[in-house]
Design brief:
The chain has about 350 residues and is an all-alpha fold. Among the domains are: about 110 residues, Serine Threonine Protein Phosphatase 5, Tetratricopeptide repeat (Alpha Horseshoe); about 100 residues, Serine Threonine Protein Phosphatase 5, Tetratricopeptide repeat, CATH 1.25.40. The chain is built from 15 helices and no strands. It is elongated, with a radius of gyration of 23 Å. The protein starts with about 35 loop residues before the first helix and ends in a 22-residue tail after the last helix.
């Protein structure tokens, strides 16, 4: 029986998790973009194929079956949890499936690994999903928000307007959307979505006549951009240049060297670790005898290669899902002494598209 890392709060490491979902036979893993494939090459061959195929399944199912897509992303994270692209996939699928706490934690981890704030709008929307619109507004006013590109600033403004609406500040919601990108005479890829969000905010503020004008302009922008039912999907392969590839390879070499150093410490630490391993094995054998459960065979699809150990206390405390909080209460027996935030599902609000 697997002995989980108690400090790893991800769903991928919960003792009651189900086995990894099945992968479609036609999936090879080569369907991924070049940048993601480049990251996955740093894994061992058997793990690399496992991670790649589950990531393809997560992308394939994201729109139609987000919960199953989330399970595929979790499966990929069991062997590729130190890769930015994997943590990003877990965050996106968790967000799509409504697991806002888990999504927030994964996006924070992605930001630490990659140094990118590109998912700041989705993180702010996760705060809304967790019933914390004030925190969403704090993100919208943060220094990191100033570094977003134009589409990112639009998405963050839409989230901020939604947070104002959550607080019943409807005039303020209109103001949040009055950004430089709101230009009625020009159409960009983000314009139809921004125009409709602005129209909805105007309607909520009791300005229906103005809202109608912006709704019409959203249709005009779509037609100008060739969007809508006849839109042809854009397939873009963002290949890395040689300098970026060299920097990434150097970073991965440093990570592997650090991991190797962690796995082979001084001999003075080996004896205690061996004793701990023996004790864990004895406890595992006893548990198997009592429950009748068979251990996961080494080398099988669900055998654990390693665990991600969280180093972000803020994320861990802020993003624990509701059922985990309930379990913690039951174990401590101190329900009356503890006040927990209700993370029940929020009312429908406008999501963020990445």
């Amino acid at each position: 029986m697997r002995v989980p890392n108690a400090r790893d709060l991800r769903s991928a490491n919960r003792p009651d998790r189900e086995r990894s979902p099945q992968i479609d036979e036609d999936v090879t893993g080569k369907e991924l973009d070049r940048a993601t494939q480049h990251q996955i090459k740093t894994l061992e061959d058997n793990s690399a194929e496992w991670v790649a195929r589950h990531l393809v399944m997560a992308g394939r199912l994201l729109d139609e079956e987000p919960e199953l897509a989330f399970q595929h992303a979790l499966a990929a994270s069991r062997r590729g949890g130190r890769l930015a692209s994997v943590r990003e996939a877990v965050g996106l699928t968790a967000y799509a499936a409504g697991h806002y706490g888990e999504a927030l934690r994964e996006f924070r981890t992605y930001r630490r690994i990659s140094g990118s704030n590109m998912h700041l709008p989705v993180m702010a929307d996760c705060e809304r999903g967790l019933g914390r619109p004030d925190r969403a507004l704090d993100m919208a006013r943060s220094e990191e928000a100033k570094d977003l590109d134009a589409p990112g600033k639009v998405e963050l403004a839409i989230v901020a307007a939604g947070a104002r609406a959550d607080l019943e500040q409807f005039d303020a919601a209109v103001s949040e959307l009055e950004i430089p990108q709101l230009d009625i005479n020009r159409a960009f890829s983000y314009s139809p979505r921004l125009f409709r969000a602005y129209a909805n905010a105007l309607t909520a503020a009791g300005r229906a006549a103005e809202a109608t004008k912006w709704e019409r302009q959203a249709v005009v922008a779509e037609n100008a951009l060739g969007l809508g039912a006849e839109e042809e999907p854009d397939i873009i392969d963002l290949g890395w240049d040689e300098e970026e590839e060299a920097r990434e390879e150097e970073r991965q070499r440093r990570l592997r060297a650090e991991e190797a150093a962690d796995k082979h410490p001084g001999t003075e630490e080996r004896a205690p670790r061996a004793a701990n391993a023996a004790a864990a094995a004895e406890a595992s054998g006893a548990a198997e005898a009592e429950t009748g459960l068979n251990p996961v065979e080494e080398g099988s699809d669900d055998a654990e290669s390693d665990y991600f150990e969280s180093d972000d206390a803020e994320s861990d405390q802020d993003s624990v899902e509701a059922d985990e909080l309930d379990d913690a209460d039951a174990e401590s027996g101190s329900d009356a002494d503890q006040e927990l935030v209700d993370h029940s599902a929020p009312a429908q609000h406008e999501g963020v598209e990445d």
